[in-house]
Amino acid sequence: MARSTAAITASMSTTCLTSPSRSTRVTAGRIAGLMTSGSLNVGLIGLGTVGGQVADRLLTWQPQLARRAGIELCLKRVLVRDVNKPRAVTAPNELLTADPNALLDDPSIQILVEVAGGDEPMHGYLERAIRSGKHVVTANKVVMAKHGPELLDLA
Fold first, then answer.
1. Is 142's pLDDT higher than 90?
2. Which of 16, 72, 98, 110 minimizes the number of CB atoms within 10 Å of its CB?
């Protein structure tokens, strides 16, 4: 798909990668199926300043988010460099992993949110997630600057 026909929704430096043809298929079929399931599972890469706030909102505002979105958003797994590092956000230990495969290969995770930053390995993680059918949200300006057209074509 040509870059000019790809849809990029940008809001507060966050980019959602979808293509018009895939968006139509996703809206008509896949999202309809997800919505009937009652919940969407979210995988998060990064638990720093931004990731910590995303995790905190998903964990502590779950009832409000479910009411507003009409579906429960469940934080399923968080990829971090060091699971033992002290953090400002209290995330249950069972959510944390240092193994990217635990997040990327989990078929129950439908949405991947990447807020760790940097080029590699994040570019590879995003590519893998898109290829496996996950919806991807990123705030990573480096990856989008270097690999945006390639990732948009995949999406």
1. yes
2. 98
